[in-house]
Amino acid sequence: MRAITMTRAAVRGLVCMLACAATAGAQTIAITGGTVYPVSGPKIEHGTVLITNGKVAAVGANVTIPAGATRIDATGKWVTPGLFNAATTLGLAEGNPGSGGYNDSHAKGEKGVSASFNAWEGINPASTFIPPTRKDGITTVMVAPSRGNLIGGRAAVIDLNGESVASMLVKGPIAMVAELGEGGEARAETFAHLREVLSDAKVYGLRKAAYDNGAVRALAASREDLEALAPVVAGTMPIIISANRASDIRAALGIAKQFGLKLVIEGGAEAWEAAKEIAAAHVPVMAGAMNNIPGSFSTLGHRQENLALLKAAGVQVIIVGDGGGLGEDNYNARNVRYEAGNAVAYGMTWDDALKAVTLVPAEVLGVSDRVGSLQIGKEADVVVWSGDPFEFATVAEHVYVRGVENLERTRQEELTDRYKTKPPAYKKP
Question: What is the pTM of this model?
Answer without folding.
Answer: 0.89
